[in-house]
Amino acid sequence: MFDKTVNRNWSLGWHQDRTIVVEARADADGFGPWTVKAGLIQVEPPFDILERMVTLRVHLDPVDASNAPLRIVPASHKLGRIPEIDIDRVVAALGEKLCLAERGDIWRYATPIVHASLAANPPRRRRVLQVDYSADEAPGPLAWRGV
């Protein structure tokens, strides 16, 4: 859940989502490094898992151009894992689109798409529920963290 408010109004630079949330840390070939964000155990899986995933964003508030819309780079998910040093070049080459939304709209996109978000200007509420979905089973002994 992302909840931007007048007091918590952040921006996020261009990036690809590269981690999945699992129930517990466990050794699995090709998985790592590990991190904990907001109390959730996350690990970077082999990139082919991310390429088969989709992300849903449920908008609980309207998102216009000034209320921190998701910024995406069209077709960037087709480029595979993009090294951090190359992301600005990809943005310049492919351009960006703003994902505007009304309350209740749902955006679906390929999980590894290059994306970013600015802070709301002027600062105001922008709540989004994000769900990352994979049809793949987590390789034992890992288990997906579900909702």
Structural summary, described in words:
The protein starts with a strand and ends in a 14-residue tail after the last strand. It has 147 residues and is mainly β. The radius of gyration is 16 Å and the shape is globular. The protein has one domain: Jelly Rolls (Sandwich), CATH 2.60.120.620. The mean pLDDT is 95. The protein has two helices and eleven strands; from the N terminus they run βββββαββαββββ. A four-stranded antiparallel beta sheet has the order 1-11-6-9, with no helix packed on it. It has a four-stranded antiparallel beta sheet with strand order 2-10-7-8, with helices on one face. A three-stranded antiparallel beta sheet has the order 3-5-4, with no helix packed on it. 9% of the residues lie in helices and 31% in strands. A hairpin with a 2-residue loop joins strand 4 (34-37) and strand 5.
CATH superfamily: q2cbj1_9rhob like domain
Q: Helical stretch count? A: 2
Largest sheet: 4 strands, antiparallel
What is the CATH fold-level name? Jelly Rolls
Q: Termini, distance in Å? A: 11 Å
Helix content: under 10%
Provide the number of structural domains. 1
Ranges where pLDDT stays below 50 over 5 or more residues in a row are none
> How many beta strands in the DSSP annotation?
11
In short:
This protein has helices spanning 47-51, 87-94, and strands spanning 2-4, 12-15, 20-22, 34-37, 40-43, 54-59, 70-72, 97-99, 106-110, 115-117, 126-133. By secondary structure, the chain is mainly β.
Q: Which keywords apply here?
A:
mainly beta, Jelly Rolls, 4-stranded antiparallel beta sheet, 9% helix
